[in-house]
Amino acid sequence: MSLSKCTIFIKFILQFLFLLVFASVFSACTHQQDAKPSPSEDNDKQNVPPSQPEDTWKLPIEIPEGEFYKVAAWYSDHHLLYITNLEQSSSVYLYNLLTGSSELLYKSEVPIVTIQASPSKKNILIQSSPSTYEGQVIILSPEGSEIFKQSIPSYELAFEWNPFNESEILISSFNEDWTFQLLLLDIEQRKTTELTLPQPFIKWIGNEEVAYLKWNEDSPSLLAPLMMKNLSNEAEEELFTDVLQFATYNDILMTVTVKDDEQLQASYTFYNKDKKLVNSFSIPHLSMFSGWLVPYNDLNVRKGNFITLKPVKSAEADAYREGFELVSYDIDKGKSTVILHDLKNEPILLSPSGESALYGNRFENVIDLKTKELRELVAK
To answer: What is the distance between the alpha carbons of residues 252 and 267, in angstroms, rounded to a whole number?
Structure first.
């Protein structure tokens, strides 16, 4: 493989990892650092506040059956969805952090790869894997009944739930050689439609608008224009030039860029729904053969709270051993707070209230952002 083709391939995988927070880590091409019912109405009637101090949580989780695979998602501030495996079957449980109870939500006779709750937590997406080259997409009601089910020929799948219209999900279906097909799943109409877009890494930026980085594969670069496209009329617009990575959170758009005069700093910039600047800050950069490492991060829109794992200094990623700080930024006020030191660069996911975060490659830990405590969810 030529050097330019190798560069494109590695960059492609890195972008893939950025979007698949809950998917498998592709170690061959990345350099990660070492440094049934819905939440019960009874709880609602008891006026349980949106979040509770972690010292009232019942931990660790006692697994009812099988072997713990991973925590998949928050379902509320005191409910988690987690997966267990038993031989070739998988089960999805709803865990109540306040009572310590696990309720079986769904059982699959084939392995489950990942779970996503819809933005409003009304529905649940499950991806199972009947075989290496087939993915199965299942949409569940809050009670755990199947609303929709479809098999898709694929080696890997990635999903983007439309936060403006939760009946729609973008599905990127990858072949083993990383060629791809883009599908739009309409849950209400129970159908999928193929889309024509130049990149598989798509994020919703409006009810009918999506955003993506327009990489020029004929002229490899570490940065690319950030484009917006309307799926109904095909209108396309360039939003920003020279973007390394981006993320969308309902009405908030975040870009990660590198300034020409500050190559050792990564600039995180936040824009509102009108693409007007909200705030910006910079952190040290870790360089890689294929570009720069963007550490795991997340944003709670309700609180305007952005958290990221931050290197303590700029360096080459392969040689960096100083660990990462977990830092919380108030994007409205521009203030920052260090939560924890000496962490690894592993996935992180904020709770609906933004007061706690799941952390780890299997989300096996939880962090209380107020008390700055890290606890194991499952006993080793």
So the answer is: 16
Task: Give buried/exposed letters for 86-110 (b at 16+ CB in 10 A, else e).
Answer: eeeebbbbbbbbeeeebbebbbbee
Task: List phi, psi (to 5°) of 376.
Answer: -80, 135
Provide the domain count of the chain: 1
Would you write out the chain's pLDDT as a tens digit for each of its 380 residues?
443 434 434 444 444 433 333 333 333 333 333 333 344 343 333 344 445 556 789 999 999 999 999 999 999 999 999 999 999 999 999 999 999 999 999 999 999 999 999 999 999 999 999 999 999 999 999 999 999 999 999 999 999 999 999 999 999 999 999 999 999 999 999 999 999 999 999 999 999 999 999 998 777 788 999 999 999 988 999 999 999 999 999 999 999 999 766 678 999 999 999 999 999 999 999 998 878 899 999 999 999 999 999 999 999 999 999 999 999 999 999 999 999 999 999 999 999 999 999 999 999 999 999 999 999 999 87
Residue 45, CA distances (Å) to 42, 52, 143, 250 in order: 5, 16, 18, 30
Looking up tokens 């108030």, which residue turns up? 330
Q: Is 375 exposed, middle or buried (0-12, 13-18, 19+ CB in 10 A)?
A: middle
Q: Cβ–Cβ contacts within 10 Å for residue 7, how many?
A: 17
> What span, in angstroms and rounded, lies between the C-alpha atoms of 18 and 5?
20
Name 42's Cβ contacts closer than 8 Å, sequence gap at least 6: none
User: 127 is in which domain, residue-wise?
Assistant: 36-153
Q: How many residues comprise the chain?
A: 380
126 in a structural domain: yes
Query: Cα Rg for the chain, rounded, in angstroms?
Result: 20
In a domain, 137, yes or no: yes
Is 207 within a domain? no
Are 352 and 74 in contact by the 8 Å Cβ rule? The answer is yes
The reported pTM is: 0.85
Task: From 195, 201, 206, 249, select the one nearest 226 (Cα to Cα).
Answer: 201
The contacts of residue 231 (CB under 8 Å, 6+ apart) are 184, 195, 208, 209, 210
Q: Is residue 133 part of a domain?
A: yes
